[in-house]
Amino acid sequence: MQDWIDAGIQKMEERTSPKRKVFILLSLFVIFGSVSIYMTISSVYNLGKNRGRQIEIEHIHRLELEQRSTKDSITYKNNMRYEYGKRGQ
């Protein structure tokens, strides 16, 4: 299928005169260039428009987390009494 398409394009290109190739190339350049300029200008023009909408800014609320137990493992270890220096008691 790809070879068939490539062969068709090559035949069409061989039959086209050099002046016509330049005309096609310049026509495509003008079309795509015009579309590019239009999109750039319209996006810059519409950049500042609100169109009836405003951004709503809300304050960040504190996240309520579930407390699983009242004993924290780190606090529990820090409150343990380690008796250093005493042996065999």
Strand content: under 5%
Q: How many DSSP-defined strands?
A: 0
Mean pLDDT: 78
Structural class: mainly alpha
Describe the structure.
This protein is mainly alpha-helical and 89 residues long. The chain has a domain at 17-49. The protein has three helices and no strands. The protein is elongated. The mean pLDDT is 78.
List keywords for this structure.
89 residues, mainly alpha, 55% helix
Short description:
The protein has a domain at 17-49. Helix content is 55%, strand content 0%.
Layout of SSEs?
Elements (H helix, E strand, L loop, with lengths): L1 H14 L2 H28 L27 H7 L10
